[in-house]
Amino acid sequence: MQPHHRRALARAARAGLLARGVRGLALLHAGPLDERRRDRRPARRPAGRDRPSPTTRRAVSGATGGRLFLFDVDGTLVTAAGAGRIALGRALAATYGTTGPIEAYDFRGKTDPRIVWDLMRGAGLDNARIAERLPACFAAYVAELDALIGDGARVKVMPGIAEVVRALAARRDAVVGLLTGNIEAGARVKLRPTGLWPLFRLGAFGSDDLDRRKLPAIACERAQRLVGHPFAFEQVTIIGDTPLDVDCARACGAVAVAVATGFHPPEELTACAPDLFFADFSDVPAALAALTAPR
Asked: Which residue of 128, 130, 219, 263 is 20 to 30 Å from 198, comparing CA positions?
């Protein structure tokens, strides 16, 4: 292992970024509501680190019905200038000895585990070897990603999205979360420089299931644990930048919102017939009005 890899692994471990096998965190800021910690004293966190603002806490605690807004990460919230693809390629080579057909592979909208399985099967590896090395692969991936992201200069927030997320997070009738193909640790690294991470009260990640269609049910279950009441799929809005995000919403009956800030042109997204389409979120008042309109 190269010295910079060891340093990145150490930083990732200290920050709690290493993937736990291929499982993500159930709730991002739930504290004692997380069932895995219910009978234990909550871990102490450094003051101010990853804590939601008082406005965000009020918005969640005051919700009695409301809406659940779930955002994709890459291409929707941010772009990391290809850091994820580079990091995963390096991790695959280090862990499995091959990247598989990565140059021809379409990452868009896929979960991280799905990508690894597809690429390694494409390289001829058997299922047992892929599964055995998957935790090590994702640990290496997070370390590489952390090193590539560095001070965050390569991470760019998409137009208007920070204002939209903050406004939704401040509403008493809304819960804001993530629904992304990223493993949880990877999502954390990508969002760390943006200041947005504390606004997302829960998440459903690629580390929860390699099938994106299964993630909305996971998000709804976690939202219920967080606020104490269930969310029907018709109360859920899924926002993403790929046809697979629209498909994910359609499969469960959620509101499908497509935004053309990723790598799919507008015509490809509108052909999927989302409930709402945005070129971007630069017109924040119009975007908020459309997203929060009664349905």
From this structure: 263
